[in-house]
Design goal:
The chain is an all-beta fold. The protein has one helix and 15 strands, in the order E-E-E-E-H-E-E-E-E-E-E-E-E-E-E-E. Strands 1, 2, 3, 4, 5, 6, 7, 10, 13 and 15 form a ten-stranded antiparallel beta sheet that branches. A hairpin with a 7-residue loop joins strand 6 (92-106) and strand 7. The chain is globular, with a radius of gyration of 20 Å.
Length: 238
């Protein structure tokens, strides 16, 4: 049995901004809404699901006017991605299309100011696997294939967060999600919007069959040199 602690947090990306270095705590909760169905005359409670699921995530850290404050103050819907089990391909990641609900600031004597924000999902919470670790990559860079043991047929959701970009003369970089039946011959199943500036992030719906193996490909378009994109991609199969 593996156990994990603070040093194992692989990345936290909010709208593409890498904010793990400013955080001291992540707390998330997943709720299935239930309604009591206990009839008259029954001696034991009974409950039924009403078919509604809720997610809330709370991020806490050190107040920084150029760090998490910028990310937290945005009122736009922005993908939140985090990996609690390490920055490792195939390990778990959580992704949500996040709406910031509340910001709390705390100033205390003899301590650094604190900042906390809670987020709710505008669509849903997706839990899947890391396809691309949060690391720098150059053009035509593929990641190792992640083995799902079998194909699935109900599609999925991919998340992208890009925090650092050096185009080096190139026009943009496009990151795609690919699948394969044999971990050798791959085909594109999803394409993120071209990245021309960072921070950048996207939640991408993928439909239909996703074959057993999946990976990502980063392609810089145009011409140039010394190109690099630091990004992470996660995939949750339906």
């Amino acid at each position: 049995m593996a156990v994990f602690g603070s040093p194992d947090v692989g990345f936290v990306l909010l709208g593409g901004r890498s904010i793990a270095g400013d955080l001291t705590e992540i707390q998330d909760s997943f709720e299935v809404v239930l309604e009591e169905t206990t009839p008259l005359g029954a001696s034991d409670d009974t409950w039924a699901s009403v078919g509604v699921r809720k997610y809330e995530g709370t991020l806490s850290g050190i107040y920084s006017d150029s760090g998490i404050l910028t990310a937290f103050e945005s009122t736009a819907v922005q993908p939140l991605m985090y990996a609690l089990e390490g920055n490792t391909i195939g390990n778990e990641f959580v992704g949500i299309d996040a709406i910031r609900a509340v910001i709390t600031r705390q100033a205390t004597r003899d301590a650094l100011h604190r900042l906390e924000a809670s987020f709710k999902a505008s669509t849903r919470m997706d839990k899947g696997v890391i396809l691309s670790t949060h690391a720098a990559r150059a053009t035509a860079s593929t990641t190792a294939g992640v083995d799902n043991a079998a194909a699935t047929t109900a599609g999925g959701v991919a998340y992208l967060g890009a925090s650092v970009l050096a185009l080096g003369g190139y026009t943009n970089v496009v990151i795609t999600v690919e699948d394969s039946a044999n971990n050798s011959s791959f085909a594109t199943i999803g394409t993120f919007t071209a990245i021309t500036a960072v921070p950048a992030s996207q939640r991408l719906e993928i439909t239909g069959t996703i074959r057993r193996y999946t990976r990502t490909l980063a392609t810089f378009n145009g011409s140039g040199s010394s190109e690099s994109v630091t990004s992470a991609v996660g995939l949750a199969r339906n």
